[in-house]
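Hi V.,

You were right to ask for the full record rather than a summary. Here it is.
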Amino acid sequence: MVACPSTIFLFSCSWFLLTLALRTPHERRELQSLHGVYRQELQNFHDLQYAGKFTIGGQMMQAVLDTGSFEVLVFGERCVGCGNKLYDSTKSSSYKGTNLTSFHQFGSGDCDTHMAYENVSFDGIVNISDQYFWQVDDAVMSVATSGNWQAIIGLGLPGHVRKEAHLKSEELQNQLADQPDMFRKFSVNKLKKQLQLEKAINESEVILESTPMTSFSFCLREAEGSPGVMIWHDHPAFHNVPWTQLKVTDDGYWSVQMENLELYDHSLSFGCSRDKPCAAVVDSGTSLMAVPNYMYNQFKEILSRTGAAGEDCDDLAGLPDLCFSLDGHRYCLPPDSYVGIVAEEQEQMLWGLWERRGPHPCQLLVTAFDSTNSAGHDIVILGMPFLRQFYTSFVAGTTKDDRALYTAIPDDDCYPSQPHYILEGEAKGPRTRIGPGSVPREHRPPRRVDMSRALLPDPRRSGPGGPASPGQEEEKKY
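Predicted structure:
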């Protein structure tokens, strides 16, 4: 049963849900707007990047809204390798800088940053004063040079950044006890900087804490080049739809338990067994699906099936769906979620995450990524392909027990409309998107991908925490 949002009192919530049930869909949407629900369109860049407008210090910019990271990064005017249309702190009267520095790593590149505070607004609907952020001073991030977006806004769960900063401080304190005298002064200064950074982070709030928002949703339209939508303050209770609820199992990431990752025809099983489940992260900031290396090697076997799909991926109906269970519920993704067209001139190693297999353009759209969560479970990243099929609500709630994901099938306008599972009497198996705007599987065109523009996870992270740069707190994606 869907609970009422914590920001609505019991009586008003009950009345609100009753009015939703009695009114037409159009009237329900009007009521949702009265309760602060704000639908923000996301501009689509090559089906690999989605960015929404926001204002920082009175300057309009585009940002990747990323459920797979936690903090706000903004490319500053002094940044080398950050593209154009950059944030200029000298033009803002509300900017507050600090001397605290950090180093952020993503699969798409690295950033040198310093901490600052600024006023942030999303279309004047969501307004935040003195939001802490990291101003990027230098970057090696090719995906940022296009100028399509100038910021990354992390929408990961609260508490993770403070935990990581504290663990780093403890690590440095333990190292100090074993340091020779000749290095002790350097180590003391390093620890002092880290403790200052930890204190600043403990006194600051991530986006999900800076606003009264305890829930939001994502929907990416399926058609190639179509815009996506992020829905601020959205909640499953606002929609008269049979939702599938998934328990969030991680303290920081929007992660759920995954089992039985396999092709629908059962010809190939990749792992994530009941005895050894995986942790599936629903990540709006990763372009493709990412799996551990041993699974990636198994995925390569799919390319032997491209005789059925055609060397140009012109017959995807010859390939099976990719299926898995999330928290005991079965989901399937169509073949264009894991196979597509990559032109020869776009071949590159991408930190070893992806490599061309064979001379033909029909290629595997899955990346390799080895990491485990705090419980030791392999991480599988369900990136944008999952959000193209399923309207997904992210509910942080007010306690850890409230945290959950809710999924449904969206209609053509990106509103939840149907349950994700097949109803009794219909065709077998879990359903993917349906409706007049959906493309029948036998006529589904292949997705064309420019791998140089893909947003990918960081393969250098070996596990929770990861190695840190000297004297700097570090955020890594996974």
